[in-house]
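ok so for the tutorial part 2 we go from a plain amino acid sequence to predicted structure tokens. step 1 is just haveing the sequence, like this:
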Amino acid sequence: MKLFKFCLILASAGTLAVAPGCKDFYNVNVNPLTPTAVDLNSLLPVAQVNMAEYLGDNIGGLSQYTMALMQQLYNTRNIGNFQQTGDAFSGEWAGLYRGVLINNERIITQGTTEQRWNYVGIAQLQKAYVFSQMVDVWGDIPYSEALKGEVNPAPRFDKDEAIYNGTTTIQGLFSLIDEGLANLAKPGSVPTKPTLSAVDLIYKGDLDKWARFGRTLKLKLYNQLRKTTTATTVQSQVGPLLTGPLMEETGDFQLGYLNTTNPDNRNPGYVTDYNANPENRIGRYFYEGMLTLNDPRKPYYFFNQLAAGTTTTNQDYISPLDPSFVTVRPGTSSQYASVATTASVQTVQGLYPVGGRYDDGKGGKTGTTSGKAEAPQRLLTYYSRKYTEAELRLTVYNDVVAARTAFDAAVQASFNKVNAIATADGSPVIPAASITTYKTSALARFDNAPSAEDKLEVIMYEKYVASFGYGVDVYTDFRRTGHPTIRVSREAVAQSAPNSGLLVDDGATRANGPFPLRLYYPTNDLTLNPNSPRSQRDVTAPIFWDK
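step 2 — the prediction. this is what the tokens look like for a chain of 547 residues:
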């Protein structure tokens, strides 16, 4: 695969702009700073790489911060200990509009003119996916009037529910997905050179996989809305999807990376954490929860720089369950919250989330060459689809047996995914016997849970663990279900609604605010756009599907 370095044109929610720098991507060699036209085969990989980066687990992606909210990671940047500012997520907001959505829109418009329906369908599905993720964290956003450049430099903020479901004047996400699926099915798309298979970084031009993704996305979104309507309505929506061709295990919606630095095509989360000063610490309760359950995925998820059986001193938190685990707790009052030595001994993200080191127990200081940095940025996966099915069977169909079957398949798929990444890395795989032992234990927890709500806790905990590396959906799942329970400071629990899923931690931390149910808008968009809400929403105001 050839790699080329290029600059790209970006566009904000309302107006066009030029990127201030260059970025490395696959299979593109074009300078669109002065183009008469930009080919679709140049636009598509730009949109896909930016989608993974601005939604993903890295310093510029929403997942790093939503994972911090969900106590999987801890970092002081942007979200801190539940404290936001008007500039906290301006980069992600701008990147999604400028680097992803505007390019998708150009593909849709230009592809329709050129009758390249395969490109149009792909771009429509990507557009629906990205907008759904943005609604899930911000609520009301520019949608129907966005991406129009000088025609409308001040787009209104459409209501979150209207974006999902549509109105008489707004095409909703479900309609957009259906239109994308219909375009994928159209015969006679005018071919491009290079071919779609050469520039599509996600499915290599496999339109069947794209269609399966689109239907799986619909299933996901209908499930997220299940509390806004009746079980009968949800069954009518998801029933045809559950019996139809959905995402398969080889069809995960993800972006792969390469271990090259010139140009740099490494997993950006690896770049964030495998340097002299790692960005992220690991959540104490997340790590110890997996340890307590004897989860064999632990050495794939985390890398302890201290060798097994060794420990250190003068750190904020050293686990009594595993003294080689070192971290900093969010909002800690410890004198060691920011000691200079933490970087050299702290536990970091491992192979599975960012392509870091597999933990063989030998320890060692991490650096830029510690791992291959090739783990994909997962966005929507087969195992996630199966957990969604388990949730629907339990909560909408009230069918415990079918829920258990889907849950069993989901757990197995979660382990298969770890082993696939381990195999590609050349690391040992989890033995089948270890998988069976853990899965038997997980099924026993499900069987022994006394109520449907307790069984849902088991399902959502396993989904939470499997999803490590992609935080947006974990954050969404928690807000709409209250599962799995997570431990935070006493102040955060006190300022949150009852039965929110928040439990009190050991009392050694303090919160700077309530657990946020939404993210702040960029200040500039509020002050410069006369059609914006003009002020931040209360962070305890839920997104419309959070009932």
